[in-house]
Automatic annotation (TrEMBL):
The lineage of its organism: Eukaryota, Sar, Stramenopiles, Oomycota, Peronosporomycetes. InterPro entries: Riboflavin_synthase-like_b-brl. It comes from Phytophthora oleae. It comes from the Eukaryota. This is Uncharacterized protein.
Length: 53
């Protein structure tokens, strides 16, 4: 979420978490398709941005 030009401020250590709702049948189908367990941990790489200047 880009908060540029808004009244929203951020300081180190603050965090925003959004938990979306997923249809249970769709989740089960996805897990089966990818041979995953509901308790599996999935780590995604973070894209790094170039520093300005």
């Amino acid at each position: 979420m880009d908060t540029t030009n808004t009244a929203i401020t951020y300081r180190n250590g603050e965090a925003l978490v959004v938990f979306g709702h997923n249809d249970e049948k769709a989740v089960v189908k996805f897990l089966q398709m990818y041979n995953m367990d509901a308790g599996d941990l999935v780590a995604l790489p973070v894209a790094h941005q170039k520093k300005k200047g």
